[in-house]
Write a structure and sequence with these properties.
Length: 342
């Protein structure tokens, strides 16, 4: 080293020291912070592009609803959670990673309008940091999230929760295959099959494989529980913060609906929206690798359904615990509850 010449950058200079870093190690200086892509590249997975935010000012970010993002007639609740968590994460020291969040859905979001995320730096401690995020459209706060972040720390370790025994995702049908099968399944009512066939099919950014083969429809009763594997389509950047945002996004896709399962009946039209959502991230994971989502609804009462969930890696590690309460009503016709009023 002493006699050879190497290209290097001066990275610190004082009267007494001059710190040089060989060119091949300059990547060590790159921020490890939340995926820092300033542009949305086509090569990124759709999930990563949906969660992309533009910085506007310090603590203020802007997100949009991409044309190919799932919408359900409004801004999808998971998009609010994922984007708000991304905004919060971008303001936190990159060594701290989200361990819990609590959110409220206040107003139906308009997917034709950008969403402004205003981050409030509630506290920055040595080990923990807390952020509050407001999602704003047309001057109204439509969604709010509190999230807490922690520096990696060793400690006690136990896991009582056991991953249920379910088939491997490779043995199960994809949503696309399931849809094809349902259209031609003679055990299902013709009206239901026609409805599935005529409904426009928009692929989700998340691949889903239901663990139980069932022939129930949105018009037939079933137990208030569900288990499915999910993973982001495509490869995600290697940033644990992003993987947690993608899990947060996905967690609202099929969650509250489980609460409606025992109440489904012919002709039922429901008006249901997520009201609040809480998550605890226990261990690191990748959201572009299969994750098992185990959902139960212990209660529905007073027009509110309650659901709780656990997420496991393929190795049976409990990675996330979560809960949600949602509004569960019979829809008054015409179904108008889900229109934005901003
Ligand atoms: C289980 C097997 C599954 C297999 C699945 C396979 C495939 C799945 C396929 C699809 C899955 C889709 C998954 C979609 C999940 C989507 C989840 C979400 O994204 S929800 C979006 C996030 N949440 C929100 O946006 C909620 C925002 N918050 C609010 O809107 C409000 O806070 C509120 C909760 C409505 C409460 O506001 P308020 O106090 O003002 O409430 P009101 O009771 O006064 O009502 C407001 C408004 O609604 C009208 N309304 C009320 N009740 C009804 C009803 N029963 N029917 C129709 N309309 C109703 C009411 O008239 C009010 O309107 P107005 O002000 O004009 O009078």
């Amino acid at each position: 080293m002493a006699s050879s010449t190497q290209p290097a950058d001066v990275i610190a200079l004082s009267k007494l020291t001059c710190l040089l870093l060989p060119k091949e190690h300059t990547n060590l200086l790159e921020s490890k912070s939340i995926w820092s892509a300033d542009e949305t590249h086509e090569k990124f997975s759709l999930a990563e592009r949906i969660l992309h935010l533009d910085p506007v000012e310090v603590n203020i970010f802007q997100g949009i609803t991409l044309p190919d993002a799932p919408k359900f007639g409004k801004v999808f609740g998971g998009q609010f959670i994922g984007q708000a968590l991304a905004a919060a994460s971008k303001t936190v020291d990159c060594l701290k990673i989200v361990h819990s969040l609590h959110a409220y859905f206040l107003l139906i979001g308009d997917f034709n309008m950008p969403i402004t995320y205003q981050v409030h730096r509630v506290r920055d401690g040595k080990s923990f940091a807390t952020r509050r995020v407001e999602a704003i459209q047309n001057g109204n706060v439509v969604f709010t999230l509190l999230a807490s972040f922690q520096k990696e720390e060793g400690g006690f370790n136990h896991q009582v929760a056991e991953m249920p025994s379910v088939p491997n995702p490779e043995e199960l049908l994809s949503m696309e295959e399931l849809r094809e099968r349902r259209i031609i399944d003679p055990r299902l009512p013709r009206t239901y099959r026609n409805k599935v066939a005529s409904r426009e099919y928009v692929p989700w950014p998340i691949e889903i494989r239901f663990c139980e083969h069932n022939t129930s429809t949105n018009q037939t009763k079933s137990p208030p529980s569900l288990r499915y594997w999910f993973r982001a389509k495509g490869k995600l950047s290697d940033d644990q913060a992003l993987h947690r945002c993608v899990a947060a996004y996905t967690s609202d896709l099929i969650f509250l609906q489980v609460s409606l399962n025992p109440h489904r009946e012919k002709g039922l039209k429901s008006a249901s929206v997520s009201l609040d959502h809480s998550m605890w991230f226990h261990r690191p994971f990748r959201a572009d690798d299969w994750v098992l989502y185990v959902i139960n609804s212990p209660s529905a009462h007073g027009a509110r359904g309650f659901v709780s969930g656990q997420m496991f890696t393929r190795n049976g590690e409990l990675i996330v615990s979560l809960t949600q309460e949602g509004l569960l009503r019979r829809a008054r016709s015409p179904v108008s509850a889900a229109k934005p009023k901003l």
